[in-house]
Design a protein that fits this description.
832 residues
Length: 832
């Protein structure tokens, strides 16, 4: 091209470029239908462009190539020149929501924090509607919103505006109408629409996941099922977990679609659902056909019903092991539950213990649908369901109606005394009977990775399961068959053995159940059950902590710390006394001991405590120099054991105890629970004492001293006074008479004690000695108050009425003189 022609073209191009630029510059950015005035001069809403400078890399308000500022003339004040870009941003901040979004976006990108503080500090965002806030936030972009949120120099009003914008985005992301529309857009022919819908759904979190699960399981999904499944895969394993409840517990109209979706998401994880659908009693023909078609792609032949039971039992065993390893009290786990209509799911965030128990009960539900099960399989499945029901509702089983759905689902086996005893024995970790044999046909065992074929643990494996045991004990009380306390074996029946379980709730529930069953014939270890009722009656509001520390100063420090944490501290002088106190029972929740006991080495002390039935679960905190031997013995037992130096603060003790308590299968007893068990124990003892003289397997008189102590511990409640009255022994009558005459007690308690004494005399006669009878008359003569004389007078009337003797009333001493003994009435001879 000739040079002149090239030069001519260059001039023309330069002229056109200049005209175009002048035209753009002359346009009003707020004019016309375009909200940005014919183009956005600030670029995209991302992190493009270094935020340290302007949009061309230079500093705002100057830089390389900038025209020098005109120096102020004489008489003029120096004024700071405002960058044209800042002026333009200010105009935008006063415009529409989209323009405000552009101003906020560019100010955040360029780090103009003072300008941003002005834009957001004028209450503009607060005055916008929810939809307008969403438009502003979408214009700014999530990345720049986050950048502005982390800027510490912004004022409170600006931060509140940013919070409203972020909240608007989060709310819009879970809007049901928006999510439904996005799912329908997955069926669009436009790639851009499908991409936008996918982005919207992936940002919707649990709300979008619930919508996707319901859509994928529907008989007629709103978009192609494969496209919905593709989005579900973007949620990882959560997608499978959200759809699984629909395949197991959903309405019949969604189970087939849910099963198809699970197989597409993860065929290996869906095996349990598939073999269940193949042999389920409640599966529809469509479910069976789908399961058979998928399983034929995996195995040479369809799994038999026996193999399905084996596989599901093994999955249940794995879930039980996960439950065993779970820890109580830490939030963060998530499960999905079916909604009321049975066609959708809802997220729930329980503790990991409840979450793992729910996974176990899912496999139990699959086993239940197979129909007739081996006894060991039935026991494992029922225990999993009872465990879960108790964990989500600690009062489950207190009403007989709670068990009606279980009896309907599992059949009449739940009312059989033999099966109930086996169920409880398995829950206590003492399995009885045979286990299901592992026999797999063809290559199914290899394909399923069956346990037992290589010497693995069989499906009859059990674990000590306190939560399930409590529900079983309550079910035994509902069934009401007293035969469960009897056994032909040398050991006590499982129900009686549960009364000595290391978990307080289990032993108290067992004792309560035996009291409700009221067996009349002697049975093995009946006196131990009586001891448990007495132990229950002595419970108070605070848990028990045993303290055994040699150094007096250290003992005082630890005693004060434990007292502030709410424990009732009992100090013991030696390791031998510590072992005896553990064996005595009670709501013992903590042992604090020195690493250098005076009468035995610490290793032996820990070992002896752990070998006691009631000491197997108690947390032990050892204070002093740690030793390797103690670490070794701590690994030998499952219960928590911790070694620490002497803690100087309550917070240090609490921080040490927190993980120890969290390791327990159940939380410690609450004050209301202790009070409830105490009342139940007293009520049972009152009932037994009222039946003195009738055949029963308990000897209350041999525990008279313990009963008196229990009555005192309870504050001499009406129930405890009734127990003392029903004993009818010299000691119990003497205690009641002493209470009636005690001037330090309130008049109401004294009168109740006198009435209890009268009832005892009416039933058993006067058991007091002649000297004790004379003491009652002397107490009456010395009593000044009318209420006291009425109480003691009731005692005297009861004794006189029993022997048919009436004496004249003793003389009342004058109010202003010292009381004098009244020699007139003579005590009658006591009635043996």
């Amino acid at each position: 091209m000739p040079p002149m022609l090239f030069r001519g073209y260059s001039l023309v191009a330069a002229f056109l470029l200049l005209c175009s630029a002048s035209t753009l510059w002359a346009q009003d950015p707020f004019g016309g239908d375009d909200p940005f005035g014919g183009g956005n001069p600030f670029g995209a809403g991302d992190d493009a462009g270094d935020a340290a400078g302007g949009i061309f890399g230079g500093e705002i308000g100057g830089g390389v190539g900038a025209a020098p500022a005109r120096p102020p003339q004489p008489g003029e004040e120096a004024q700071e020149e405002v960058d044209p870009l800042v002026l333009q941003l200010r105009r935008y901040a006063a415009g529409s929501p989209e323009q405000l979004g552009v101003a906020v976006r560019e100010a955040s990108r360029l780090r103009l924090w003072s300008e941003l503080d002005t834009f957001l500090g004028t209450n503009r965002v607060e005055n916008l509607s929810a939809a307008e806030r969403v438009r502003v936030a979408e214009t700014v972009g999530q990345a720049l919103l986050t950048r502005a949120w982390t800027e510490a120099t912004l004022g409170e009003e600006a931060r509140e505006s940013l919070r409203l914008l972020r909240e608007a985005v989060a709310t819009a992301a879970v809007d049901p109408a928006t999510l439904d529309a996005a799912i329908r857009q997955l069926g669009s022919e436009s790639y851009d629409e499908r991409l936008g819908a996918t982005r919207t759904l992936l940002q919707g979190g649990n709300a979008a996941l619930a919508k996707l699960a319901a859509a994928a399981a529907a008989a007629e999904p709103p978009a192609p099922r494969q496209r919905i499944i593709k989005v579900l895969r973007g949620f990882g394993s959560s997608g499978f977990e959200a759809v699984a409840p629909l395949a197991l517990y959903g309405d019949a109209s969604v189970r087939t679609g849910a099963l198809r979706t699970l197989a597409a998401l993860d065929r290996e994880r869906a095996l349990a659902m598939l073999v269940t659908a193949l042999h389920s009693r409640v599966a529809s023909p469509a479910e069976r056909e789908l399961a058979a078609a998928i399983l034929r792609q995996i195995f040479p032949s369809l799994p038999s019903r026996h193999e399905a039971e084996l596989y599901l039992v093994d999955r249940l065993r794995v879930a039980n092991e996960a439950y065993r390893r779970s820890r109580l009290g830490f939030a963060g786990a998530q499960i999905w539950q079916i909604d009321a209509a049975g066609t959708g799911v809802e997220p729930v965030v329980p503790t990991p213990t409840v979450a793992t128990a729910r996974r176990a009960v899912d496999f139990a539900s699959m086993l239940q649908r197979l129909g007739s099960l081996h006894p060991s399989t039935l026991s494992a499945a029922v225990r999993a369901e009872l465990r879960y029901r108790y964990l989500i509702d600690s009062i489950f089983g207190l009403e007989p109606a709670d068990f009606a759905p279980l009896q309907t689902a599992w059949g009449e086996a739940l009312t059989d005394a033999t099966f109930l005893s086996r169920l409880l024995s398995d829950a206590l970790g003492q399995p009885v009977g045979d286990s299901l044999a592992y026999t797999f046909d063809e290559s199914l065992g290899d394909a399923l990775g069956a346990p037992g074929r290589g010497g693995g643990v069989g499906p009859g494996e059990t674990l000590d399961d306190p939560a399930a045991a409590i529900a079983i004990l309550r079910w035994m009380a509902v069934v009401g068959d007293p035969d469960v306390v009897y056994t032909t074996a040398a050991e006590p029946a499982p129900l009686v053995a549960a009364a000595s379980h290391p978990e307080p709730r289990v032993r108290y529930e067992a004792a309560t159940t035996i009291g409700a069953l009221a067996p009349r014939q002697p049975y093995e270890e009946s006196n131990r059950v009586l001891d448990r009722w007495i132990e229950m009656s002595q419970l108070d509001d605070a848990p028990l902590a045993l303290l055994m520390v040699n150094d007096a100063l250290s003992a005082r420090v630890l005693n004060a710390h434990l007292d502030q944490l709410g424990y009732r501290v009992v100090r013991v002088p030696s390791a031998e006394a510590l072992v005896d106190a553990v064996a005595a029972g009670g709501d013992l929740q903590l042992i604090v001991a020195t690493t250098t006991p005076p009468d035995m080495v610490a290793v032996e002390m820990v070992d002896r405590v752990r070998r006691l039935q009631l000491g197997g679960r108690v947390p032990i905190l050892l204070v002093g120099e740690p030793t390797e031997a103690l670490v070794t013995i701590g690994d030998r037992w499952l219960a928590p054991l911790q070694q620490i130096p002497l803690p100087q603060t309550v917070a240090a003790v609490a921080a040490t105890l927190r993980p120890m308590n969290a390791a327990a299968p159940l939380p410690p007893l609450r004050a209301a629970e202790r009070q409830g068990y105490a009342l139940q124990g007293l009520a049972i003892l009152e009932s037994l004492a009222g039946e003195q003289g009738t055949p029963q397997p308990y000897d209350l008189l041999r525990r008279e001293q313990a009963l008196a102590e229990a009555s005192q511990r309870s504050g001499f409640s009406s129930e405890s006074l009734a127990v003392l009255s029903a004993l009818g022994s010299p000691q119990s009558q003497s205690l009641l008479a002493t209470l009636a005459a005690n001037p330090s007690l309130d008049a109401e308690l004294r009168q109740r004690a006198a009435e209890a004494f009268a009832a005892s005399v009416e039933r058993f006669g006067t058991r007091l000695s002649r000297r004790q009878v004379a003491d009652q008359y002397e107490r009456f003569n010395l009593e000044r108050t009318p209420e006291g004389r009425a109480a003691i007078g009731r005692v005297l009337d009861a004794m006189e009425a029993k022997v048919g003797v009436s004496s004249q009333p003793p003389q009342t001493p004058p109010a202003d003189s010292a009381p004098q003994p009244d020699p007139t009435p003579q005590p009658p001879a006591p009635q043996p």
